[in-house]
Amino acid sequence: MHAHAAPADPDLFAHALALAGMAAAIVYWWAAGRLLRRGDAWPRWRTISFTAGSAGVAWIAVSPLPGATFTAHMMEHLILGMAAPLLLILARPFTLTLRVLPPGTARRSLLTLMHSRPTAWMVFPPVAALLDLGGLWLLYRTELLAAVQHHPLGHTVTHAHVLVAGLLFTFSVCQLDPVRHRRSLLLRGATLLAAGAAHAVLAKTLYATSPPGTSFTTADVQTGAQIMYYGGDMVEAALAVVLAASWYQAAGRRDRRLHTNHLQTTSPDTSP
Fold it and tell me: How many CB atoms lie within 10 A of CB 260?
């Protein structure tokens, strides 16, 4: 779910969300720097990706975007619910955390949480897609948007929801960090395709009919719907590229294993 930009000065809750985004970036920099200082490799582009995602969250929380009300809201939706989660997940924050934490209670607790049954269900691709897309349909096709759009706390809660739902969906599709059950590429790809279709259909319904109970102008809603439609396609295409890269890497590892096994089984026995 999501709500449009704050009407005037950002409220206290929005500032808290912005500070959380900035704090996450600082912690990530520290962790990546610690790995590098002890001689371990950590791609710099991941740090850049996480920084960009965190900056996007902080910016959306406190800075109203240009344009009419619903158009600005939809730009927020794309950045906070789709682009920022992709940038954050590509940075593999859980992998970094596991590599930085020393063996002990904290590391075991994180692994236990990531491998727990509730977490496995939340990052099961169809469930994560339902949480993400279902929230959007509920927001736009009921009077929920009209109810929360002028309430600072409701505005920030919907910001937090769309971010968390976007993170869960992106995590479930990419599966770059360690998970209890690594789902098949077919299931993740099919889920991405279905979610993309649901997102596109929702954008088309918005182009035809404004969210119930709102007073946005027709031109404003139609512009926002177009941003949702075409911008969503771009982010979903990027997710498809991540899936394709994962398949390519997995196929390469499988081929190398087969090649190694073949060499081991066909090499001559040199024992006396």
Answer: 10
pLDDT tens column, 159-196: 889 999 999 999 999 998 877 778 888 999 999 999 99
Local structure of residue 177 (DSSP, 8 states):
S
170 is a domain residue = yes
- Residue 32 structure tokens: 């990546």
| CA distance readout (Å), 73 to 53, 66, 158, 218 | 18, 10, 12, 15
Between CA 155 and CA 245 the distance in angstroms is: 36
Instruction: Return d(Cα 103, Cα 56) in angstroms, integer.
Output: 33
Distance CA(145)–CA(74), nearest Å, equals 12
Q: With beta carbons less than 8 A apart as the criterion, state whether 166 and 85 touch.
A: yes
Alpha-carbon distance of 98 to 96, in angstroms, equals 5
Domain-embedded: residue 108: no
* Domain total of the chain: 1
